[in-house]
Amino acid sequence: MTHTQLEYLLSVDTYRHFATAAEKCFVTQPTLSMQIQKLEEELGVQVFDRSRVPVRPTELGKEVIAQARVAVAEFKKIEELVKVQRDGITGELRIGVIPTLAPYLVPLFITSFIQKYPKVHVTIQESVTGDIVENLRLELLDVGLLVTPLNDKTIVEVPLFYEAFVGYMHPSHTLAKLETITAEAIDPADLWLLNDGHCFRSQVLQLCNRTKGIRNVHLDYESGSLETLKRIVETQRGMTLLPELSVLDLSEEKKGMVRPFADPQPLREVSLVVHRSFLKKRLIEALRDEIVAHVPVGLKERNPVRVVKIK
C-alpha cells in the first residue's frame, strides 16, 4: 500500500469516475485503474462497485476510504508544516460561503486578507450548506463559512459571531408602527421567504413556529436572494426577515423599514467550519483572525442567549 495508491483511491471517490480521477491526478486512466486494483488485491477487498454509473464505493469500501482520508491528511500535514516554516503562509485557500452570508461578510475582510497574505490565492464559492459540507469531506473545499450548529460529527465548527434577525417591512405594514417586533406578532401570510435549501429559510420557519412553507394570498414568490426579498417587500408590501449584516449598508430611508426583535433577540451563529481531518491549519487560522477583526464589534460581543436552530 502506497501513498500514491491512496491518493488515487480518494480521487475516484471524489469524482466517481475513473477517467476524471486520472485527469485530476495527472496520470493515464490505465495507470490509475491498475494501481487501485493492486491496492484492492493487497487488501483482499473490493473498494469500488464498478458495475454502477457513476462508480460508487462498496459498504466496506466506504470505511476504507474514510481511513484513507485520515492517513493522507496526516501525511500532508508533514508537508504543510515544513512549507509554512520555509515559505510562510502561502498556497490556495478554497472557501465555501452560503448565499445569505457571502455578499455581506466577504467584502468586510477579503481585501485586507489578500493584502496581508499576497502569496495566497483565494477561491470563493457560494453554495448551500449541504453542498459545502460534502465538498469539505471530498477535499474540494478547505473551509466553509456557515450558520451552525449543524450537529455533524464529520466537521469542526468554530463560532465567529452571532448575527441578529431583523424584520424588513413595507412602511404600510401594521408592525411598522412598532419600535420592536416579536415572532408571535408576525402574520405568516405577510411573510416573504427564501426558497428550499437555504438554512436561513429553515431558521425563519422555526422562529415563526412553522414547519412548512407559507402561502401568500395573492402571490407566491420564494427567492434564492435576500436582495430580491427586499425588493419584493418594497414593491408588494408585506415583510420578510433578514440577517443583521444584510441591512447595515442600507440608505437611511430603507433603514426606516427595519425593525429589531424585542430582547432576547433571536440570533444565528456564524461559524468557520472545516472537516475533522482538515489541512492548512495556519492559513485557516489567519482567515479566522481576519474575519473576526473586521466584523462589527456588537456581533462579536453578543451573548448568544437565543440562537435559532436549523432543522
Automatic annotation (TrEMBL):
Keywords attached to this entry: DNA-binding, Transcription, Transcription regulation
The keyword Ubl conjugation appears for this protein: no
Domain of life: Bacteria
Matches recorded under Pfam families: HTH_1, LysR_substrate
Cited Gene3D superfamilies: Periplasmic binding protein-like II, Winged helix-like DNA-binding domain superfamily/Winged helix DNA-binding domain
SUPFAM superfamilies in the record: Periplasmic binding protein-like II (SSF53850), Winged helix' DNA-binding domain (SSF46785)
Annotated InterPro entries: HTH-type_LysR_regulators, LysR_HTH_N, LysR_subst-bd, WH-like_DNA-bd_sf, WH_DNA-bd_sf
Ranges where the HTH lysR-type domain occurs: 1-58
Keyword DNA-binding in annotation: yes
Family statement: Belongs to the LysR transcriptional regulatory family.
Protein's UniProt name: LysR family transcriptional regulator
